[in-house]
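Appendix B. Extra example for self-study. Work through it before the problem class; the solution is given directly after the inputs so you can check yourself.
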Amino acid sequence: MNSLSLLRSSSRVLLGSFRNAGAESIIAPVVSRRHKGYYKSSVEGPAEQYTEVEKSYVEWKFVEKLLPPKLVPETPSDPGVVYPSGWKTPNPEEYSKLPYYIRRTKNGMLPVYYRSFNRGMFQTTRVRYVEGNVWILEKELGQYLKKNFPKQPIITHANEVGRYVQVRGDHEPMIKQWLLDKGF
Amino acid sequence: MLEFESDLSTLVAIIIPCIHSYVSTYLEWSCTSKQIQMALRNGTDRALALIRTLPRVSAFNLRPDPASRADGKRPRGQHGGRRHGYPQKGAKQRQTFPRLGFENGAVPFYLRIPKENYYKGHHLRRQYPPLSLHQLQTLIDTQRINPSEPIDLATICNTKIFSFNPGYRHFGFHLTDDGMDTFQAKINIEVQWVTEPVIAAIEKNGGTITTAYYDVESLWAIRDPEHFFQRGIPIMKRMLPPEDAVEYYTDPKFRGYLADPEKIAEERFTLAQKYGYELPDLSSDPQKELLLRRKDPKQVFFGLQPGWILIPKLPLHGMSPKKLGSI
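Solution. Structure tokens for the complete assembly:
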């Protein structure tokens, strides 16, 4: 920044001196370069300079590192391990005791989704991919939330064919933690 | 034109009964077995049977949708009528209306509501979509990002979870402080905008952070390297930041890539004192080489230099150097 401002000030001084001289001034304008990209910049030398071509295969490994994976990388498999971000691996020992099972999404996350309709007037949180007894899950989820929110109306809804349990309101983080504690 | 149309209409009129009779005779002639009868009752089969007998579609048997062509003439009176549909005198006939938005002297809506220039010129300013430390930690925990490689824009975009659009004046990512208290990864990361507490969170865990500027062309390349390589153009030189960004990227406090490395070392020390953590010693670190790996200011991709071209239009995955040499 400093060097640039110096440049500018020096060119202004030049202009000033020309003016004072009173002569017919060929004022060198302040060169304002518009920010150009590489391809729009002019070539530095003559075209004959750029004829050497060399094929190289050694740097291919850097290209490979820049290519994205075709499949979602596998998540760690150690059961029930809690990671610094709060992400936890499922624990079959814990969840196999329960009459329902909630599988993870393809990205290894919990299938709990918050949805809102009517400009936020109607909100639901949905637990998807439920297998087994959805009714017991609905009941237990309702009981857990009622205990934590005694003054809020907790309205639950279960859909066996759709394999989901839905609760009115925004309870996504709480439900996620509750499921993690159960080992899902 | 009229003659043509009348011919067509008569032709159309002729064709349809012909087909009808042809199909009925065809049915009478061929349908002995009940199976064929049942089959031809199906709408699809009937349509197919019809198509077999209809003439080829050409300009001769096509007609434009009547609603698509508006009549030039207004259908009123002789020669369009005395007043051509307009009422007598007044602004409607003379077309002397007031300006759009005028409300007969009342202060118009577009002047009544005041301006609030919160976002004036926002479409011209550089934007850095956020990426929180918590999200970064989650990416590392779920093994989407490898912490034993330097993390840059390409790494983040290759997870396919986060992306930015240079067309919306996005110039990279802003690493935010959400999750800085639980951040535990030791990484070498390069982002475009960062604040002091985030730098502290990363350096506390023994990592390094750099802020680097990418010009628009470099951004398009780095956000989707696979697509860029398939374009078959030489890798570009990264341009230096514009004037208003030079101050940030030459500042050691923000670990700018153009800043003096000695001053950066000083700032690392003072930041550790400010936030009250023991600054890990980089020189005796086993991952020193990884943590100190930096791109040249004019370099876009790690390991690749400007001017190089990748041979395009090949399936890049699974293409070994040997195979490439044979091409």
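Self-check: Residues 49 and 72 of chain A are 46 Å apart (CA to CA). If your reasoning did not lead you there, revisit section 3.
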